[in-house]
Amino acid sequence: MASPRGWQWGESRAFGRAVKLLQRLEEQCRDPRLVMGPPSLRVLLPRTAQLLREVAKARREARGDPEGPGGAGDFLVIYLANLEAKGRKVAELLPPRGKKDANEEVFREGSRFRRQLAKLALIFSHMHAELSALFPGGKYCGHLYQLTKSSAHTFWREHCGIRCVLPWAEFQSLLCTCHPVEPGPIMQALRSTLDLTCSGHVSVFEFDIFTRLFQPWPTLLKNWQLLAVNHPGYMAFLTYDEVQMRLQACRDKPGSYIFRPSCTRLGQWAIGYVSPDGSILQTIPLNKPLFQVLLKGQKDGIFLYPDGKKHNPDLTELCQAELHQRIEVSEEELQLYEAMNSTFELCKICAERDKDVRIEPCGHLLCSHCLATWQQSDSQTCPFCRRQIKGHEAVSICQAQERSVEFRATAEDTRDNCHHEAAWNLEPVTPAAPPLPPEDPSPRRPQDKGWLTVVSDI
Predict the structure, then answer these.
(1) Cα separation of 363 and 427, whole Å?
(2) Cbl-PTB domain spans which residues (predicted)?
(3) Considering the chain, what percentage of its residues have pLDDT values greater than 90?
C-alpha cells in the first residue's frame, strides 16, 4: 500500500495535469466560430479547472490516509483519468493553437465533427455537475449524498454503503437483485443511459439523476424501456441547439416532438415540439412524471408525432402503478396540530387546500397548487427550509387507524399492482411559513437563445 505522502504526491500531480489540460483546451476554444449554446465548453472548462483547484486544496489540507473503496480517493482516480481521456478527444477536434489550417468541418453546424464536439460538451457538463455535487466547495461529501427518491436512496445505502462510485459490472449485478435485466443489448443500452460521464463506472450522483428521470421506483426499468429504449421521441446527448435543428424538418407538421434529459436542470426532462404556427418551442415540465406529460400533451394535440413519425407509443400502461405515497399521522401528531388550532392535512402556506405533494429530498409537505405557484416564480428551493428542490411526489395523508383498515381492504390489489406503500417521517411542525410570491408574477422577459420555458403543467 502506498504511503500517505506518496498517495498525496501522486494525486497532486494528477490535479496539476488536469488543470493544465483544461487551460490548453480553453485557449483552443477561443475561435468565435466555436460559440455554442448551453452547454458551452468556453464556460465549462474554466469552471471545472477552478473546482479542481478547490478540491485539490481541500485534499491537501485534509489529514489521514485515502478513504476506503469507493470513497473520494477512488472517485478522483476515475474522474481525473476520464477527464484526461475526454480532454484528448476534444483537443483532436479543436483547431491547434497558433495554426490556421484547422479542420473547417468542426465549424459547420450539423457536421459529424460538430456533433462529436457537442456530445463531449455534454459529457463535460455532466462531469462538472457531478464534481460539484460530490465536492461542494471542494470538500468531499459523497458518503453523505442524499438521493432525491427515497427508495433509490435506500437501495444505494443498503447495497453500496457509503461508497460514491462503483464499477459498472458490480453495479449492474446489484441493480439486478431489485430490477432484473437480461444481459445483451438491453443491458448495454442501460449502461449508456446511466453512465452520464462515460467512465465505465456509476456514481451515486448518476444513479440519482437516472432514478429522477425514470420514476417511479417500482417500475423503474419498465419506465426506462418504454420512454428511452422503445420511444422514437427519446434523444440522448442532444443539446438545445441540436433539438432546434432536428425539428426544422418537421416545421410543416405541428405536433411533432422529441424529448431529452435537460443538461441545465439535471434530473428533469426537456421537450421540444412544433407548435400550430410552425414555430419550434422547448419546455421543461414540472410537477409530473414524463409519461403523464406526454399523455396529456397527446390528448391536447401538442405531442402527436415523435420525431415526426406517425406512430405515437401508448404509455397508458405506466399509469396503472399507483403513484401516491401515504403519510401516516399518529394520534399524538393530530392532537398537537389541534392544539395549534389547525390540522395536519391543511397546507400551511395557503391554509385552504390539503397537502398532497412531498418535496424531495427535504420531505416538506404542501399542496400542489402552492408548489406550482412557488416554482413559477423561478424559485428552486423549498419554501420552508430553502434546500434545493430536486423532485416531488404525490402523497395522501391518513390517520394510523384509517391506514390499518384500508391496508387490510386493499392488500390484494396492492400485491397485484406490485406497489409497495411506505409511511414517511412526518415533516417538522412549522408555526409559520415564508410567503409565496404574488399569484400573477410580472411578465417574463423575452427568452434568449438557449433558455427554456419552465412550466408546471401542459
Answers:
(1) 6
(2) 4-317
(3) 55
In sequence order, the β-bridge partners of residue 167 are 201
Instruction: Show Cβ contacts of residue 102 under 8 Å, excluding neighbours closer than 6 positions.
Output: 31, 95, 96
Residue 397 bridge partners (DSSP): 327
425-455 pLDDT, tens digit per residue, is 333 333 333 334 333 333 333 333 443 444 4
Pairing status of strand 365-366 against strand 357-360 = antiparallel
- Residues sharing a CB contact under 8 Å with residue 277, sequence separation 6 or more, in sequence order: 254
- Tell me the CA end-to-end span of the chain in Å, nearest whole number: 57
Neighbours of 176 (CB within 10 A): 14
Q: Outline where 235-376 has alpha helix (H).
A: 240-248, 290-299, 331-339, 368-376
The pLDDT value given to residue 422:
33
Q: Distance between CA atoms of 214 and 267, rounded to whole angstroms? A: 9
Phi/psi of residue 256, nearest 5 degrees: -70, 145
* pLDDT, tens digit (0-9, with 9 covering 90-100), for 381-416: 899 888 888 888 888 877 655 444 443 344 344 333
Question: 447 CB contacts (<8 Å, ≥6 apart)?
Answer: 453
Cα 192 to the chain's mean position, in Å?
Answer: 15
Task: Using the structure block, give the residue that is written with the C-alpha cell 434529459.
Answer: 261
| Sheet order of strands, 365-366 included | 325-329, 391-399, 357-360, 365-366
- Residues 30 and 46: their CA atoms lie apart, in Å, by 12
Q: How confident is the model at residue 133 (pLDDT cuts 50, 70, 90)?
A: very high
pLDDT single digits (tens) 27-79: 998 888 888 778 999 999 999 999 999 999 999 888 655 578 999 999 999 99
Helices (H), 62-148: 72-93, 112-134
Neighbours of 200 (CB within 10 A): 13
Cβ–Cβ < 8 Å for 45, 124: yes
Residue type, position 108, single letter: R
Mean pLDDT within 119-131: 97
Lowest-pLDDT range of 18-22, 83-87, 102-106? 102-106
Q: Residue with C-alpha cell 484526461?
A: 84
Could you tell me how many helices (H) and strands (E) the chain has, helices first? 14, 11
C-alpha cell at 74: 477512488
Report the alpha-carbon distance of residue 25 to residue 96 in Å, rounded.
10
- The answer on pLDDT for 373 being more than 90 is no
Burial of 299 (0-12, 13-18, 19+ CB in 10 A): exposed
| pTM score, whole prediction | 0.79
CB-based contacts of 426, cutoff 8 Å, min separation 6: 327, 329, 333, 344
